[in-house]
Recover the amino acids of this structure.
């Protein structure tokens, strides 16, 4: 809904059967006595590897729980994952990007048990073969390899209590028989996402304040179905289908808005009140199908990979936004303004991708490939503004219609070479060439058609090397250049209304931004690491808070608009020191990160590029240095290691972002888990101290100020039950990267 855009700018039954299991108690005891000595956390040439196969943190947890306990990974909103020093983290499975749209990915991760995970790879600087944008990093989830035929799976049910109660359930199954593998997943649930707001903006003479709540009910259902067939010893054919549907009916915004006027001496002259009473209904449908062919061309591991995919995304959204003023009896029942909005979006994408990896003797690998994406978005927006006079009588109607169609073609080619020169030294070099041709058309009644064209031709180099000084010391360096294209919803020139004088405005003129990333890493004993990172962002895509005075009914009001645009340049520098170790005969597993992040902002804006409206100039040329701390700990409470206590904590010091100074955030999370045969019972309590509340404050030299406080009620508890059934040695179906995956992250 509309508030989710604002928050994005602010911050980042049961199974009645089961396959019978054969157990041998003697063998089981022997296995329990084995002491595992392999390295749990280590640095490879271009990635960090966290081996979690034998770790007790996996059993009974969701994939999302496991990821946020991984070194270098964190989350501040319990929805998105971030790699230290990076803006965003993309999820890959077995080296292939997750075949799922961005909106359903979080639900998928939270409803998928983590028992099948072998290791997690954190790729902080992806090579040219990866289709990533900006300073994005990659989280690659490597699944366990299971060799025999049969059926296995798991079920998980959970209930959560924050401000409101929510529940979810998931069912996963894998079947393999000879050359055929089938994998299926079904998940669903419902919850109410609650938020409280305090919004303030204005000058010393005119001040706005909006206080109230947002309740967003959500029901969702989704899943996937994958078929993988081995044609012969060298080739495989796979077909996958992903689907997700979300319904949010009755989403409400209730804000009390206060306008205060002062004289030059600071004395209060006048106070006026109104209420924003908004109701929104929205639903999303996302379906994608991908056909994959893989051919192994030699015994060294060379292979050809071909993909073709189709993606259809549909969003239907309508809202009734009412501004109410006090009636004669003082109640807020008199209409002042009503805006009816119909904001649909339809995205159709066809994609194709080809990769060829040639492995040579003497540890040389050359990769070459290309991709093609053809996307069309259709946004037929209809707004109707109803205005009422001071007595509540209907005055006039102003329609605001805009049919925006956006066509985009992307051609990408890459070439990389990776060489291991010795046991100590290895390197990788590559480049990616991307050609983007796009055109948007805007049809507004009684106006000439507007045409927006954007063509890009980008050469994006990549370089990395890794040097093992000795068995204990390792150093590596990477450089990459990337671009970030605007999401499709960012280009749709729609206005999302929060209050009568507070709205967000998207922008079809937004152009792609470019990022240059450098990283230097040092690792000691595969347990301690230091990461130095620098990123330069050109033409940053963000929302900018612009203010101006407006006249209405002979009185001056203060308008605040969050304008989507390119906002100058930005630099981010970070130094992160970390540790991942086990103590007390592996009874305690801990990872700890501490570091400094330095932000330099350089942007200025005064005009809405879409409407041409002139606001007061907003300038952000500020710098900040911030302390960041994160620690995740799992403690076995009994000798048999069936009871576990989890203690997780993060702290992010205040830092300068595009909207102003983001105040410090922190959260203490606790968990208690019991493993009993094939069952796992877990209780998780998040934000115990209730300190994870977003506050942003900005003061301009011209006297303008802006303040946002957003409480998403992150303190809460979740009780979950997980059951694993069937033959646990079933080989997992190959996870295939869909050709349309690069497009999905840009849908809403």
């Amino acid at each position: 809904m509309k508030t989710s855009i604002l928050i994005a700018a602010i911050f980042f039954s049961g199974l009645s059967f089961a396959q019978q299991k054969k157990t041998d108690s003697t063998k089981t005891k022997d296995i329990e006595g084995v002491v595992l000595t392999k390295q749990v956390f280590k640095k490879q040439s271009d990635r960090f590897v966290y081996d979690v196969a034998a770790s007790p943190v996996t059993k009974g947890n969701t994939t999302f729980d496991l990821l946020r306990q991984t070194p270098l990974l964190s989350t501040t909103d319990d929805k998105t994952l971030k790699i230290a020093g990076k803006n965003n983290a993309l999820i890959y499975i077995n080296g292939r990007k997750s075949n799922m749209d961005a909106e359903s990915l979080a639900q998928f991760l939270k409803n998928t048990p983590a028992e099948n995970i072998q290791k997690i790879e954190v790729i902080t600087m992806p090579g040219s073969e990866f289709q990533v944008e900006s300073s994005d990093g990659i989280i690659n989830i490597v699944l366990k390899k299971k060799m025999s035929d049969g059926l296995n799976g798991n079920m998980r049910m959970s209930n959560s209590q924050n401000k409101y109660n929510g529940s979810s359930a998931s069912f996963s199954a894998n079947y393999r028989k000879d050359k055929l593998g089938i994998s299926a997943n079904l998940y669903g649930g419902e919850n109410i996402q609650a938020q409280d707001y305090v919004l303030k903006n204005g000058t010393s003479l005119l001040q706005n304040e909006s206080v109230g709540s947002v309740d967003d009910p959500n029901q969702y259902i989704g899943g996937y179905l994958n078929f993988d067939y081995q044609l012969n010893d060298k080739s495989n054919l796979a077909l996958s289908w992903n689907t997700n549907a979300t319904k949010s009916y009755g989403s409400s915004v209730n804000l009390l808005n206060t306008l205060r006027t002062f004289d030059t001496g600071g004395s209060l002259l006048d106070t006026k009140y109104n209420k924003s009473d908004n109701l929104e209904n929205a639903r999303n449908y996302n379906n994608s199908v991908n056909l994959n062919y893989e051919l192994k061309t030699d015994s060294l591991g060379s292979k050809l990979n071909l993909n073709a995919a189709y993606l259809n995304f549909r969003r239907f959204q309508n809202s009734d936004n009412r501004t109410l003023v006090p009636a004669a009896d003082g109640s807020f029942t008199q209409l002042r303004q009503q805006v009816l909005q119909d904001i649909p979006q339809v995205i159709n994408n066809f994609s194709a991708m080809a990769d060829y990896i040639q492995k040579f003797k003497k540890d040389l690998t050359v990769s070459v490939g290309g991709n093609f994406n053809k996307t069309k978005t259709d946004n037929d927006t209809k707004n109707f503004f109803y205005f009422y006079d001071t007595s509540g009588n209907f005055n006039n109607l102003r329609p605001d219609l805009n049919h925006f169609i956006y066509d985009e073609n992307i051609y990408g080619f890459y070439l990389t070479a990776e060489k291991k020169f010795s046991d100590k030294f290895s390197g990788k070099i590559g480049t990616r060439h991307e050609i983007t041709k796009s055109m948007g058309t805007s049809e507004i009644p009684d106006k000439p058609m507007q045409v927006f064209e954007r063509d890009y031709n980008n050469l994006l180099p990549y370089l990395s090397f890794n040097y093992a000084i000795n068995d204990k010391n390792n150093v590596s360096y990477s450089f990459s250049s990337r671009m970030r294209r605007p999401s499709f919803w960012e280009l749709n020139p729609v206005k999302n209304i929060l209050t009568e004088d507070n709205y967000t405005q998207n922008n079809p003129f937004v152009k792609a931004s470019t990022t240059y990333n450098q990283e230097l890493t040092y690792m000691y004993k595969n347990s301690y690491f230091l990461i130095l990172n620098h990123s330069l962002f050109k033409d940053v895509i963000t929302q900018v808070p612009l203010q101006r005075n407006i006249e209405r009914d002979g009185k001056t009001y203060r308008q605040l608009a969050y304008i989507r645009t390119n906002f100058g340049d930005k630099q981010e520098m970070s130094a992160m020191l970390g540790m991942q170790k086990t103590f007390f005969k592996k009874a305690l597993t801990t990872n700890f990160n501490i570091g400094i992040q330095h932000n330099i902002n350089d942007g200025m804006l005064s005009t809405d590029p879409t409407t041409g409206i002139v606001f007061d100039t907003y300038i952000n040329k500020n710098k900040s240095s911030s302390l960041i701390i994160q620690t995740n700990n799992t403690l076995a409470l009994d000798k048999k290691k069936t009871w576990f206590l989890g203690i997780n904590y993060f702290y992010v010091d205040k830092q300068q972002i595009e909207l102003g100074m983001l105040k410090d955030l922190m959260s203490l999370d606790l968990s208690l888990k019991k493993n009993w045969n094939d069952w796992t019972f877990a209780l998780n309590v998040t934000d115990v101290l209730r300190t994870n509340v977003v506050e942003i404050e900005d003061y301009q030299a011209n006297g303008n100020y802006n303040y946002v406080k957003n409480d998403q009620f992150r303190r809460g508890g979740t009780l979950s039950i997980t059951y694993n059934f069937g033959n646990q040695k079933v080989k997992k179906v190959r996870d295939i990267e869909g050709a349309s995956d690069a497009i999905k992250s840009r849908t809403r």
The longest helix spans residues 2-10.
